[in-house]
Amino acid sequence: MARIAAGITTSHVPAIGAAIDLGKTHEDYWKPVFAGYEWTREWIAKPENRPDVVVLVYNDHATAFDMNLIPTFAIGCADEFKPADEGWGPRPVPVIKNDADLAWHIAQSLILDEFDMTIINKMDVDHGLTVPLSLIFGQPQEWPCKIVPFAVNVVTYPPPSGNRCYMLGEAIGRAVASYPEDLKVQVWGTGGMSHQLQGPRAGLINAEWDQKFLDDLTANHDRLRKIRHIEYLRETGSEGIEMVMWLIMAGALGENSRELHRHYHVPASNSAVGHIVLKPKQ
Ligand SMILES: [Fe+2]
């Protein structure tokens, strides 16, 4: 049977993608950002840790979806998805190859489990999805595993609650566990951490709040799932709400997972960067 072998979260700051694509990762500003991912790159390169499939939870930034169409939760079910042109041409990264059979199975399982998923067969994927892949896998010719794009609306109000995201993660866990093929699946949650891109509070960072959030990914799921939108907004800035996507990863892994690695760095562009690797209780 398929099983969830690990969970990874990481910020998906677009400037990180540009730093990689333009060969700036060794510059003094960027070095400490990327240094925190070296452990993960070595860890995931080992055959026992390499996933067959990543369910990659991210948000689209008005690239594939705009005010014409705003799915709260969407799953990509086509065989492949291309990197989007976000204004400077598509990022020079491989096409996303999906495990369409698993994606359709997850879609069916979630919908019958009473989560109203939108099924997407045609879309381009933006930095929300490609920057985490670059951070964890570097710059390969092909991504080393299949990737199921799993998009969450956190751009247009109202985004889903953290608790709803957590329950959806639990349902993803049930979907994976009921898939008959023997697959190692990882669930990644992306976005965050504290950041605000506009208005008088632009540049807001709340390192103490972020670190407590990272702590509670292993220590206190109950507290995380009760955090309300207004707290994310007040404490972590207008874009900190992206962290509800991390709760999909947390729900999929369940309580009592073990922290293998953590990285927290400020600043990267105008955001705090957070990254954590978790292993579920077997
Ligand atoms: Fe984002």
Topology at a glance:
Elements lengths: L2 E8 L3 H8 L9 H5 L2 H8 L7 E6 L14 E4 L3 E2 L14 E2 L2 H13 L5 E3 L6 H11 L8 E7 L9 H16 L6 E7 L16 H13 L1 H6 L2 H8 L7 H10 L4 E11 L2 E9 L3
Bound molecules: fe (ii) ion.
Fe (ii) ion binds next to loops.
Structural features, described:
By secondary structure, the protein is of the alpha/beta class. Helix content is 35%, strand content 21%. An 8-stranded mixed sheet has the order 6-3-7-2-8-1-10-9, sandwiched between helices. Strands 4-5 form a two-stranded antiparallel sheet. It is globular. The mean pLDDT is 97. Bound molecules: fe (ii) ion. The site of fe (ii) ion (FE2) has 6 residues, from loops.
Provide the descriptors you would attach to this structure in a database record:
282 residues, binds fe (ii) ion, alpha/beta, eight-stranded mixed beta sheet, two-stranded antiparallel sheet, 10 helices, 21% strand
Summarize the structure.
This protein has 282 residues and is of the alpha/beta class. The chain has ten helices and ten strands. A hairpin with a 2-residue loop joins strand 9 (258-268) and strand 10.
Approximately how much beta-strand content do the residues carry?
15-25%
Order of helices and strands: EHHHEEEEHEHEHEHHHHEE
Mean pLDDT level: 97
Q: Record the strand order, biggest sheet.
A: 6-3-7-2-8-1-10-9
